[in-house]
Amino acid sequence: VGVESLRQHRRRHGSPWRPSGPSQVPVPGEARTVAPDILVAPDDGRHDLCVTPSPLVVFEVLSPSDTPRRQASTLAASAAVTSIRCVVLVRQDRRAVTVHRRSPAGGLSPAACTESVDLPEIGVTLTLAAIYDDNPLPLRRPAAAAGEGAAHSHISNLSLVGEQAIGQEVTAPP
After folding, report:
1. In 5-107, which ranges are E strands?
2. Alpha carbon of 102 to those of 6, 35, 47, 57: distances in Å?
3. Considering the entire predicted model, what is its pTM?
4. DSSP 89
5. DSSP letters of 148-164?
């Protein structure tokens, strides 16, 4: 699945949101941004997509080199952006997708997806088969041999970071 698949869904269904590739998302109260691989935001008619202040759904492709600390930091930053309703993390070393959904308490609660990724926030359901269909998993080989660039070439159309322990809610720092 990529930006074009989401654009096609938007055109067919007249969705009030727009997908885009990497864009900077300001983190409230911090002097930094996060840059998900793909994000879906309300269509506000803007043509400058370098900064997207209010995304609804963000996707991150997890590199084998992403550390748990980096993933937790990215999820905490995403939790601080209150417009983000869910973060979709796509593994590229195996067929695994985790959705971190905004909880009533305001944090992000993870759930593993086995067959499909249901995104009622934007009215889309993506199957894992569709996500990985055009993006074959790399052959098993040592990470040093594969390299970061090789890993990102397989699922470059998806995004979001973090592989917090399943069942653990992520909240924004105080």
Report:
1. 17-20, 25-26, 33-34, 38-42, 57-62, 86-91, 97-102
2. 21, 19, 28, 10
3. 0.77
4. E
5. HHHHHTTSTT-B----P
At 109, which helix (H) or strand (E)? strand 108-113
* Backbone φ/ψ region at 159: left (φ over 0), alpha (ψ -120 to 50), beta: beta
Give the neighbor-by-neighbor strand order of the sheet with 97-102. Answer: 17-20, 38-42, 57-62, 86-91, 97-102, 108-113
pLDDT grade for 127, boundaries at 50, 70 and 90:
confident
Select from 159, 73, 164, 65 the least CA-distant residue to 111.
164
3-state helix, strand, coil in the chain (%, to 5): 25, 30, 50
Residue 66: CB atoms within 10 A of its CB come to 20
Q: Give the residue with greater pLDDT, 153 vs 96.
A: 96
DSSP state of 113: E
Provide the 3-class DSSP secondary structure of residue 86. Answer: strand
- Tell whether the model's pLDDT for residue 102 goes beyond 60: yes
Least confident range of 16-20, 41-45, 75-79, 129-133: 129-133
Q: What is the DSSP letter of 19?
A: E
Neighbouring C-alpha atoms within 13 Å toward the C-beta of 51: 5
